[in-house]
Amino acid sequence: MVNVFLDLLSYSGKYKYLFILGCVLSAISAIFLLIPFIYIYQIIEQLLTTIPNYNSQLIQNLAFSALIFALSALLINFVALMCTHFSAFENEKNMKNAALEHLLKLPLGYFSTHTSGSLRKIIEYSTSQTESFLAHLLPDLVAAITTPIVFFIMLFYFDWKLGIVCIIPLIVAFISIARMFADEHTDFMMQYQTHLENMNSEAVEYLRGIPVTKTFQQTIYSYKNFHDSIINYGKFVKQYSFSMQLPMTTFTLSVHGFFILLIPVGILLSTNPLNVHTLLNLIFYMIFTPICGVMINKIMNMSQAWMTAKQALDKINEILNETPLSDSPNKVIPKNNNIKLNNIVFDYEKDDDKNHTINNLSLTINEGETVALVGPSGGGKTTIAQLINRFWDVDSGSICIGGINIKEIPHSALNDKISFVFQDSNLFKDTIYNNITMGRNFTNEEVMDAIKEAQCEEIINKLPNGLDTIVKEEGLYLSGGEQQRISLARALLKDAPIIILDEATAFTDPENELQVQKAINQITKNKTVLIIAHRLSTIRNVDRIFVINEGKLVESGTHEELLNNNGLFSKMWNEYNKAVEWKIDNAGEIQ
Description:
Elements: H1 2-9, H2 16-50, H3 56-105, H4 110-113, H5 116-158, H6 160-180, H7 183-208, H8 210-215, H9 224-255, H10 258-271, H11 276-288, H12 290-320, E1 339-346, E2 358-365, E3 370-374, H13 381-388, E4 396-401, E5 404-405, H14 411-417, E6 418-421, H15 432-437, H16 444-453, H17 457-462, H18 480-494, E7 498-502, H19 510-523, E8 528-532, E9 544-549, E10 552-557, H20 559-565, H21 568-581
Parallel strand pairs: 3-8, 3-9, 6-7, 7-8
Antiparallel strand pairs: 1-2, 1-4, 4-5, 9-10
Helix pairs in contact: 2-3, 2-5, 2-11, 3-5, 3-12, 5-6, 5-7, 5-12, 6-9, 6-10, 7-9, 10-11, 16-18, 18-19, 20-21
């Protein structure tokens, strides 16, 4: 626990001393809050033992002293919380920054296996949990630990017999807490948090798919993963609630049940024979013991908050423990743009299975060539393209650009070398201008030239605020083809010498496809171009075609050469042409 706490506090930097000061002040505040009860005891004693000749001035002084300590406790607690809040906010900020900075160092492939919903929950929700823990609950724990020490001293100082009676409910309460936070319940809580994270992640994916769901008039059951995550979450919540039913009931009864034992025992001790001093103690204990319920509730809430904060820290550490993409200190920059894959092997699962995703594949793309990767779905085309840009590192073999292993090329230099245009373009909720420039400095003339070459002029002209229009705000959405053209404008501005097009026209409608194709022709001028295509008609004129099947290179050559080989490409070409030409007759039969 200490190591986890120190690990958590390390994110506060120099503000951790404010946190320590806040905890010390919280302990002082807890002591000050108990001192007024001593004055209350003395006031009751004066009233019971000196009536009717009680000293009103003495009682007034005692009451004023109690008020001073109570107000001082509140003021000290306020200062304590200010200190812990400053530290906690710094902690949350630094934790978010550390996670985001580390994410920027991870290979791009990491984000294909970790959804935006789960990462957002970890970075936003988990860090906020640690803020609440440090700002409120940990100072409360310090107070809750300090209070029992003073509480037990006072409990036995005034009347040890009544003190023993008050200890019995406390023992029952702590046994109940121990049962609720036993190891098996800790494991269950971890599973509960995992199911909560899964449900949040699937919810994001489901919301993105609502247009499709509505189009086909389906219900939530059509999105099985989201439905299952809700069911599993509900099951774990109910299971956890039922498992806590008995210990929670016992705990609640015990912390509020002092009077069940205290009153009958106190009456018995004070009336047999009549003992004014014991009656005085009984009245005082009836006023004093409710503090114990507040104290134990804080300890219980602290235990639950500690479990939540620990798991939040574990989630952040999961990100921070991911191995970042290695960056070479050599800072070697390729002098040309040849791409060579030498016997590369790659697996997503990293197991010993011989059926690798990419299996001993070698190919060469010369500078200035336009080549295409084709083959059956799932054959490894997109994986090959992503390996060139270090979405992942190959398990064996090497990928070289300009004769230099890409692992030896600095990240920034490699990113400057390659523009990757995905089939599914992504625009941020920002202005069109910022979506195109991506925060880099360009002149207005450069931006307008890129817009013109990417065939985006008509898109900009129809928008209410032109380049300053914010995408995804107030229902403003662009079609798939329009988004693709904006993405191509980005690539044009980047002006990288190597272009990778992954089904860049896959989601465009016929009206936009011509415009997108014109933009692609502009972006690929005098570049080294790698195209991943399923529409075989779009790659007839490329310099070379590589046919990929089951992670292996099975054929290569020009379009005409591959047709004459009568191999896999020829078969794919014939099937493609049949699919393009199919039609339905009046009887509903495909011809």
